[in-house]
Design a protein that fits this description.
The protein has eleven helices and no strands. The chain is an all-alpha fold. Among the domains are: 74 residues, no CATH class; 70 residues, no CATH class. The longest helix has 62 residues.
Amino acid sequence: MPPKRRQADSHEPASPPANTKRSKPNNAPFALKPRIRHINEETIKSKWTTLPDSTQEKVKLLFQSVELPVITRNRDEKKRVEAQSALATVRKNLGKRLPKMPFPAGTRDGSFDYEGALGESKALESQLAAATSSIRLLQAEIKREEAELAKDKLKLEELERNAKAAEAERKRLNKNVHPVLKQLDESNVEEAVSAEFKLEVKNEESLFSEIDTDPALLPTIKQLRNHLESMQGNAAQDQLFTKIDELGKEDRRKTGLVPARARYSGAD
């Protein structure tokens, strides 16, 4: 027998390599496949038990239901009788051996209910199809989230590069700023820009105390001081002339003063 089997196997088409992927249709139905398990003889002797009488009766009914397709398959009446006789003999022999046959622990009556087994198989196939569909949806969602995460990482890296470049540029610019300007508050600078033009210098000594020690800046400091003093004097004169011009004509007649700006321009 083994040589014949090897000869028969030699005529079968060679199976495809393991690394090749078989093309499957997208809408292929999911089905449970039979699987053969090899049980140790010691396990069978120690853990398996015989079936109760009620279950044995269901097994016998199962044998009878299996006979019908084989008998009805033959159209010849003589062959039907022969098949029925042979199957009856096999069924009787199995029925005699059934009380002594060991079965796995936990075997239920429903295990030998053919219709119930078909219904349970269909239910399991439906659960398998739903679970497989959910897995595919989750895998697609994971791929989408991974793509979004990759985009976010690229944006984050770009923002970090821009932040480092801006920080480096700020440090470079701060190196060229005078120490006095570094101490100025930005809020004071904004208030000075929006406020009215006033020429006042408070605590002049404290303002220039730090830069007076620099000999290279002394000529510039003196020039700035002279310029500020000149601007203060001109501003004071302008304020005085404005107040005088606001006096009425009657006041100018009483005091004998001519318009202040005209007199000032004539003096020039």
